[in-house]
Request: fold
Amino acid sequence: MTLQQLKYIIEVANRGSINEAAKRLFISQPTLSNAIKDLEEELQLAIFERSNKGISLSKEGVEFLSYARQVVEQAELLESRYLNKKPSPQYFSVSTQHYAFAVNAFVSLVQEYGQEEYELALRETKTYEIIEDVKSLRSEIGILYLNEFNGKVINKLLKESNLQFTSLFTAEPHIFISINNPLAKQPKVTIDQLDEYPYLSFDQGEYNSFHFAEEILSTLSHKKSIRVNDRATLFNLLIGLNGYTISTGVLSADLNGNEIIPVPLDIDETINVGWIAHKSTALSKLGTTYIEALHRAIAPSP
Reply:
């Protein structure tokens, strides 16, 4: 086993493709494939699973990757300290539901640890894809919510994928609306009061099951309903159409301005927002730093 082979494994896992990894490593695809095959034979371990859909880490491969990343990181620290060698570009990815605090934490991460070269990814995406991203280690961390309604289904998927949910905070439901919405001055709003306003939600693609909805109360019917794919569009429609969406109430004026406000929703529900990661892998340095940044981003203002 060589350090170079470990770097090959990490690159293939990051890309999800031997062909793409080979391009990034400036080697031929057969050379890379043979190096991985030799390592698997030496260890008597199937690090990757191969199928018609491509290549992905096996369950044992996920654990191996965690150790490989630690070894390579330590080796690069030694090279940087004693050989004055420039460290490899940093790589980190997080997949999340559409939360402003997740973006704020990502900004803090880049500002604190961004080197001259880095390759980072922030994927605001669908609930099912968040779980798949973390399962395959396309992302190290995922951010989503659980509640009484979706908990059984989501927790079953997490268990099957060897993923663990860690709570960040529990929130009471709020609606997000424009400051010019007639409901903006209400101390609380009821479901009935929302009946005449357009309901905005994030599209979940082929997994549009109620249990994967990013908004609670997903089984309720609405006279006016619009699905969107990104947060900017949703916020524009909140303002332009006097629409509303249901979320945690945690907003960022720095990112979203002051034209959108949260108003408490008068309903007996809670939203448990947290992060998911593999049970069998330790977080990387950037992963640990990002979690710390998340806690700072959701902390109440002094």
Observations:
- The first helix runs from residue 3 to 15.
- The two ends are 52 Å apart (CA to CA).
- The mean pLDDT is 88.
